[in-house]
Fold:
Amino acid sequence: MNVNDILNKALKLLGIEDVTVAAGNSDPRLAKLVNALGVSYMQLITEYAPLEKEEAVTVTNGECALSALTATLFDVVRLRDASGKDVKCHIRGGKLLTEKDGGYLLTYDYLPSSYPAVGGTMVLPERITADLFARGVAAEYALESLLYEEAVTHERKYKEGLLNVLSCHKRLHVEAARWI
Structure:
């Protein structure tokens, strides 16, 4: 997802019209907005909608070095053996530890390799739209700017949007009971 699009949407939500999102712009409000983007992004992928990846790993002598993974591991989701059964594992000292050697399929949450910057792109979970994420950025910016009422409003709408998007259950509609 394009960082500039998200920043422009957040500026529109905040009612700021005199800031141009462009590389090299030294406006302190843009720097604060980029910082709010980074904080919101890390909060989103560590607390609400983690980025998930699967990789084949080989365990030798009960351990596998995490440095061999293609991304920085944040949390292990599951480890499965060749037959598809879940295997117990834990992380200690930069290594994934299991009881048996062999080939496994590791599913894990990861951290992105770069910090979002003006003109760049960022990976968002597929369910999160740019408009929804821009609301979270606007909330963080308002909080940093000590605009508490505006921050609460944006935060509430952002959390409601996350709840709707990330909820795995559809809302139930119960018909009104009619007694004849």
User: Anything to note?
Assistant: Strands lie at 51-59, 63-65, 72-80, 90-92, 95-97, 102-111. Residues 99 and 126 are 35 Å apart (CA to CA).
